[in-house]
Amino acid sequence: MTSSIVKISKLDKYFGRLHVLKNISLEVPERQVVCLIGRSGSGKSTLLRCINFLEEPSHGSIEVDGVRVEGGEKGSHHRQLVHDVRLKTGMVFQEFNLFPHMSVLENVIEAPIIVKGMDRKKAIELGEQNLDSVGMLFKRDEYPMRLSGGQKQRIAIARALTMEPRVMLFDEPTSALDPELIGEVLNVMKKLAKDGMTMLVVTHEMGFARDVADRVLVMAEGELIEDSKPEDLFKDPKDPRTKALIDRYRSGEN
Q: Are 20 and 58 in contact (CB under 8 A)?
């Protein structure tokens, strides 16, 4: 059986007195694609951000590829563990967060050189390879202001891949895109899934969740309320909140 590359145990997250994640436990095996769905404010993005410690968990533990970090701790050892987890995770955001003063290729190779100390020649080779894989090598010398939103997001994916992550985290990667550009980003993600990349994807794209995910997790009010194969979830949701979510999608309101 494939071992779990992500392990989350009894995770809680508070913002002040607001309890936004409540006792979340889950495991993700290698090469699995997991989609997280739920209404806005249900805790999906906060959970994703806790995995690579963009948000510090209040309690519980997170383990990525053998590096285990306890939430709520401090000190140099904790910071080093967080750094190690971040090296193993690639993150793609709603907004593309590209450096406007750098070319596409410079954006892609900056982190491997600065954070990992990668040789520049190797970083360029790897960066060009990843730009090619998302269909953006022909834009290597362009600047972000000259690109469409879909092109920027594909470059953001190439940038994350150039860090050679073990796990890719996507936080609603198509929500800032015009409808006609969503497909080109989803196609890149489908290719990544087919190539065996472990992926956790927060999305409102129910069709993508249904067609590409190995598992779909449903969140509501900071809790994990369902964890099923997509064919089971969409055919026979157990929780009425999940059913309401899927009914909205089917009626075209989502």
A: no
Chunked mean pLDDT (size 10), the chain, 254 residues: 87 96 97 94 95 95 96 92 95 90 96 93 96 96 95 95 96 89 92 95 92 95 95 92 87 58
83 alpha carbon, distance to own chain's centre: 17
Residue 43: count other Cβ atoms within 10 Å of its Cβ. 24
- Retrieve residue 30's tokens: 């290698």
Is the CB of residue 185 less than 8 Å from the CB of residue 149?
A: no
Sheet holding 67-70, edge to edge: 18-29, 4-15, 59-64, 67-70
Q: How many other C-beta atoms can be found within 10 angstroms of the C-beta atom of residue 86?
A: 19
The pLDDT value given to residue 28: 97
Question: What integer pLDDT is reported at residue 248 of this predicted model?
Answer: 83
Indicate the pTM of the whole model. Answer: 0.93
- Separation CA 198–CA 200 (nearest Å): 7
What residues contact residue 59 under an 8 Å CB cut-off, 6+ apart? 10, 11, 12, 71, 72
Contact 35, 216 (CB under 8 A): yes
Report the C-alpha gap between 116 and 181 in whole angstroms: 32
